[in-house]
Specification:
alpha+beta, about 475 residues, single chain, four-stranded antiparallel beta sheet, globular, Beta-lactamase, eight-stranded antiparallel beta sheet, Nuclear Transport Factor 2, Chain: A, 2 domains, about 35% helix
C-alpha cells in the first residue's frame, strides 16, 4: 500500500501534497478507485470509523461514478486539502474537502464531495448532430445497463417530436419483469414542479399574491413567526428557513403521515431556521406548506387540484400520487444498494407522495408536461416566464433556483427543470425553451442513476 501511495503522489507531480491530509486523500482515492468492498470498508474502519455506516452509499457512488481522477489542487494545509476531481464515467466534476486530525494517525475528521459546474479552464463537451448524440446515448445506456448501473426509461424530444425513447433493466427483479417506456416510476422531488405551477395558476387567477405571507391564508398556523414572516415567494424559492421533513421524527411517524395537514401537525411549531429571505436552504417542508396553501385557496385537495389543472390539460394520464396501499398498474419497484445487493426500497417509502415529492410518472408524461408548459397552456406567457426564471443562487446542479424549477445555462444553452431522488428512485427532467429539446429520465435505482443519463445527453445535443 505504501509503495502504491508513493507512486500516486509522484504521478500527481506534487499536485497532491505529501502532507497528512494529502496522504489520506491519496490513499482514499486509490482504495475508492479500486472498487473492492472489503478494502473500502477496511480503509473506513481504520481512518474514518463513523463512515462505515455509509459503506453502501460509498459503494453506490463508486459504482455510479466509475471512480475519480484528481484534476486540481485548490487549498492545502497539513490538516486540510481541497481540490477538484472528475468522475471517470461521466462529464461531472466535484469539489472535495478533507480535514484530518492533527495528531497521529491523522484520522479523517470530515470529508465531502460536492458536484460543481465544469471548471472554466476545461473544454466543453463537443456538441454533436442529433443523430450522433442519440447514438452516443444508446451506447452509454447499453454500457450502464450491462454493468447494472441503470434501470429505467429515457425519452428525448424536440418539442412535440419524439427523438428517442427506450426502457432498460428490470421493473421487478424478483419476477424478471422488464421496464417499459410507459412504466410508472417514483419521481421524488420532481413533484415540486407541479406544485409551483399550481401556485402560479392561482396567482394568475388572482386568488393569491406571491408577496403575501403564509399567515394571510393559513390564519391558524402554529408558529407565529413563520406565519408572519414567510411569504409565498420564500416558500417557492427555498428561502423561508422552513427546514426539512426527513430525520428521526419522520422515521418515527412515517406510517401516520397520510395528509398534508399531518405534516403541519408534526412540524408546524418549529421556528424559522434563519431570517426568511436571507439565504437559500432546500426545504421539503416549505413545499408541503405550498400544498396546504393550494388546498386552502382552491377549496380542493392538493391531489385533485393537480389532476384537474395540470395532469389533465397536459395529457399526463399515468401520473399521480395514490397511497401506497392502492395498487398502481405498471409501476416499477424501487431498489437500493444494501450490503452490496439491490434491495427493495419498500420500508423507506412514505404512505403517500406529497406536494414536496414522492408521486410517480412516466418519461412520456414528463415530456408532455414540459411541452404543455412551453406552449403556455398551463400558464400565460408572463406567468410561465415568472415560473421558470432563476431568482436565487443555489439549488441542485448550480445555476439559480426559480419557482420549483432549476434554471441553469451551460455552454450557452439554458436548461430548466428539476430532479428527484431517494433510496431506490431517481429522476430528472430538463428542457430548453430556446432549442425545444426535452430530456426525461426515470430510474428505479438509487441516485444518481437517472441524472447521469440526462447529464450525458444534454451537452451533446445541438444548441439550436
Amino acid at each position: 500500500m505504501a509503495a502504491a501511495l508513493c507512486g500516486l503522489l509522484v504521478a500527481a507531480a506534487t499536485a497532491i501534497p505529501d502532507t497528512p491530509a494529502g496522504q489520506q486523500f491519496a490513499q482514499w482515492l486509490e482504495v475508492f478507485n479500486g472498487g473492492k468492498r472489503e478494502e473500502i470498508q477496511q480503509f473506513l474502519e481504520q481512518n474514518r470509523p463513523e463512515g462505515v455506516k455509509q459503506l453502501d452509499r460509498e459503494i453506490g457512488l463508486r459504482q455510479m461514478s466509475g471512480g475519480f481522477d484528481f484534476e486540481k489542487l485548490e487549498e492545502s494545509t497539513p490538516e486540510k486539502i481541497t481540490g477538484i476531481v472528475k468522475e471517470r464515467d461521466s462529464d461531472n466534476y466535484a469539489r472535495f474537502v478533507m480535514q484530518v486530525a492533527p495528531g497521529l494517525p491523522h484520522r479523517i475528521v470530515s470529508f465531502g464531495l460536492q458536484l460543481i459546474p465544469r471548471p472554466a479552464e476545461v473544454q466543453a463537451v463537443a456538441r454533436l448532430s442529433e443523430q450522433d448524440a442519440i447514438a452516443a446515448l444508446k451506447a452509454d445506456l447499453q454500457q450502464r445497463t450491462g454493468e447494472d448501473r441503470f434501470a429505467g426509461a429515457v425519452a428525448v424530444a424536440r418539442s412535440r417530436r419524439l427523438v428517442f425513447s427506450g426502457a432498460y433493466g428490470m421493473a421487478n427483479r424478483e419476477h424478471h419483469v422488464p421496464n417499459r417506456v410507459d412504466a410508472r416510476f417514483r419521481i421524488g422531488s420532481m413533484n415540486k414542479m407541479f406544485t409551483a405551477t399550481a401556485v402560479l395558476q392561482l396567482a394568475q387567477a388572482g386568488k393569491l399574491k406571491l408577496t403575501d405571507t403564509l399567515g394571510t391564508y393559513l390564519t391558524d398556523y402554529p408558529n407565529k413567526d413563520v406565519a408572519a414572516k414567510v411569504t409565498v415567494h420564500h416558500l417557492l424559492t427555498h428561502t423561508g428557513g422552513t427546514g426539512d421533513i426527513f430525520g428521526p421524527e419522520f422515521e418515527k411517524n412515517r406510517l401516520t403521515l397520510r395528509a398534508l395537514s399531518d405534516y403541519v401537525t408534526l412540524y408546524g411549531r418549529r421556528a424559522p431556521e434563519f431570517e426568511p429571505g436571507a439565504r437559500f436552504a432546500y426545504s421539503n417542508y416549505g413545499f408541503i406548506l405550498l400544498g396546504v396553501l393550494i388546498e386552502k385557496v382552491s377549496g380542493q385537495s392538493y391531489y385533485d387540484y393537480v389532476r384537474e389543472h395540470i395532469f389533465k390539460p397536459a395529457g399526463m394520464t399515468r401520473t399521480d400520487s395514490l397511497p401506497e396501499e392502492e395498487p398502481v398498474e405498471g409501476r416499477s419497484k424501487g431498489y437500493l444498494q444494501q450490503d452490496g445487493k439491490w434491495t427493495p426500497n419498500t420500508n423507506t417509502l412514505p404512505v403517500r407522495g406529497t406536494s414536496a415529492g414522492g408521486g410517480y410518472s412516466t418519461v412520456t408524461d414528463l415530456v408532455a408536461f414540459a411541452n404543455t408548459l412551453m406552449e403556455y397552456k398551463l400558464l400565460n406567457a408572463g406567468y410561465t416566464k415568472l415560473l421558470l426564471a432563476g431568482k436565487v443562487e443555489g439549488g441542485p446542479g448550480g445555476g439559480k433556483y426559480a419557482y420549483g424549477f432549476s434554471d441553469i445555462t451551460a455552454d450557452g444553452v439554458r436548461w430548466v427543470g428539476h430532479g428527484g431522488g431517494a433510496p431506490g428512485m431517481n429522476g430528472d427532467l430538463k428542457f430548453s425553451p430556446e432549442s425545444g429539446y426535452i430530456v426525461a429520465v426515470l430510474s428505479n435505482f438509487d441516485p444518481p442513476a437517472a441524472s447521469r443519463i440526462s447529464d450525458f445527453i444534454a451537452p451533446r445535443l445541438p444548441a439550436r
